[in-house]
Each structure stands twice: as structure tokens, then as C-alpha cells.
């Protein structure tokens, strides 16, 4: 794999070639990745996989016309053909009044912030196999576990570089480690499954294999022999593992493309109360060792912690340069892009701030409700906000989590759900998107 400096130079060099070939402007992304993963099942090695990739993406502009091309062939002949083809395509592309690079005066200057994302990525297949076996063994050791879907461990290292003809060029590296176990309880058609996993940037930050495996086994056994729940309007409490999906629907509705295309259920919500008073949602790209931390965005703009919602009110759309131009606003540093195509938008380390109630206090006044631990299907309409998903979890009876239930749906409209949302105080930073336990009153629960 190239060094960070070599990756940066490779992206900058192809931009220079594009300008020399007649492009009015250009940017380029270089991405390299190496990954190793091991899976086991029932105490035996099941699979070992290793992958390596290097790709270069080039976007060129001829006035307001643009084209994107990519390659994994870095020979001189291939790169020359790539540049020639990209410039020719751009000259024939349709005009886009909003297309273009990020504003030159907004680009990040100086050295990128150091976010502690890279520990070198050293991991042997043997060490990953031992970790996967230990996680599965711990899960299978939990009384009531009857079968296993296996354990897995992975390690990866990637380098990402961006260069633009406005003079920006930077790169960074990041490592990633994961460990998981998935097991079953029950027999025949009544079997249930659950899992546990942990992902980190540095290997030493991973939970122990025994912790992960035990958590998977205990979660699975707790779900054995689920009952049914009656239909009706009930309070629904979301476990943090699944509650984070609510933020995903929210972010999809405030992205620049959804707003410019007028395809969002929050189209007229900027500056208004979207959530209940006190709710705060923040994006933090500078969190050390964060799973989505980054020193700059996909167009070379600086990034910083950003409050999207304060005291329940929506403070900003998430905008790349093109959508910002179309809306007459400024880009927000949320541009994201792959090797091919134009930028879109995404968050980095997203979280909903903890509330003031403990989980016990959050549920204390619920005579009968649902605690959701699994969501199934994608029945969410981003234009209307209508929400309907299959679910499984547990009954809440007189403020206590009791028996497992399955095969039901929960439904509502995201506008109403957000306004009725109450967060508990148990926020933990374990994933790329983190929320505390969340309660939403008045959802429609329907037995399957």
C-alpha cells in the first residue's frame, strides 16, 4: 500500500494532468484498502479472506459540464487514456448551473487535524481466528444457546486522498477492527437468534471476545419462546442498537439533494421545532478514534463539531457545494464521495445527546408497552414520513421489561414520532451513530 504522502501525490498528479489536457477544473480521489477477515462456526475455522484494492477517481469540468471516470490501472497508458476520456466526456455532458468545485476560499488550510485513527493495522490470521473462536465459545457457553451462526474477526487499513485544481491536496489513513458472535436458542420453527459486535479504530479498544460472546448469548436466550402482542396504540421504547435508525431517517430528510429535489418530509422545517424541547443532535468529525472521524470533507472543506438540532429545533440542512449553490446557502462541510461520481452528503460521528431520565424512570409510568430490540424491513417513506416496520422485542408491564414478543409491526409518522421522542440518560459512544434509549408514545402496534 502507498504511504499517505504517495497517495496525496497520486491524486494531485492526475488533477494536474487533467488541467494540462484542457479541463477548466478537476478533482481526484485516491482510495486504497487492505482487509483481512476470519470466520469460524462451531469451533472450527470456516473462512479466511483477504482483499487489497487501489482505485483512482477523476472528475473534470468543462465550464458547467462535468464527467467522472475511475480506474484501478495505474500504468502510464491507462492514466493518459483516462484523462483524455474524462475531458472528452465533460465537453459532451449536459450543463449543470450548480456544478463545480468547493469555493476556493473555504478550503481547509494547513495540516489536517490528528484524530488518532491509524494504529498500523497489524493483525495476523491466527490472532483473528483465536479472537473469533473465543467470542463464539463464550456465546455457546451461555445456558440455553442451542446452535451457532458463528464468530468473526476482521482488521483493515485504508488510505484516502483528495486533490482539487483549486490547490487543495491532503490524505489520511484509518484502521478498523471488528469482532462479533451470533448464536441461536430454541428448536425447530421456534428458534431465535441474536448477536453482539464491536468495531473500533484501534485494536486495543475492542471489547474482549468473552464480553462480546457472552452478550450475544444472553441476548439470544432472553428472546427464546416469544409470544404475541395485542394491536393498539402503545408506548414504544427503542433499544439504542435500533434507535439509531431513527437518526438515519432524519439525516436522509435534511440532506441537500432531498431538499433541492423537494422530496423530504421536512422540506419546510428549517428553523422550526422538529423534536421535543431539550433534544440535541450533534455531528462530531473530530472525535479521537471515532468510527467516522475525518479531518476534512469530501470536497476539501474543514470540518468541526456541528449541532444539527438544538433544543428540538432544526438548525441547518446538510449541504455539499452544489446543493448549497442551488439553495443560495453555504456548504456545511458534510460533502462525502466515493471514487466515482459527484459528492453527496453524510454525517460523521452522529449522536443524540443523553436526556435526564434513567432508563428505569423513562419506563416507570408505562402500564403496558413495547421494548424494541430488532427492526425488520424498510417501510419508511422519505417524502411523507410514514413509518411502518416489522419488529421484535419485549413487553413492558408496569414499568418493567418482561416477556419476549415477536411478529408485530410498529407504525406512525416520523414528524409525530420525533415530536413525541424522549431520550434516556444512557448514551454510549459505541457505533458511528449513537443514541440513548428512546421512548415514543402513541405508536400503532399491530400483531402479525
UniProtKB/TrEMBL annotation:
Which InterPro entries does the entry mention? Answer: Metalloprtase-TldD/E_C, Metalloprtase-TldD/E_cen_dom, Metalloprtase-TldD/E_N, PmbA, TldD/PmbA_N, TldD/PmbA_sf
User: Pfam families of this UniProt entry?
Assistant: PmbA_TldD_1st, PmbA_TldD_2nd, PmbA_TldD_3rd
One GO MF term attached to the UniProt entry: metallopeptidase activity
Among Gene3D superfamilies, the record links this protein to: PmbA/TldD superfamily
- What domain of life is recorded for the organism? Bacteria
Q: Which residues form the Metalloprotease TldD/E C-terminal domain?
A: 231-446
Q: Which residues form the Metalloprotease TldD/E N-terminal domain?
A: 26-90
Among the GO biological process terms of this entry, one is: proteolysis
Q: Which family does it belong to?
A: Belongs to the peptidase U62 family.
What name does UniProt use for this protein?
Answer: Modulator protein
Q: Which organism is it from?
A: Sphingomonas panacis
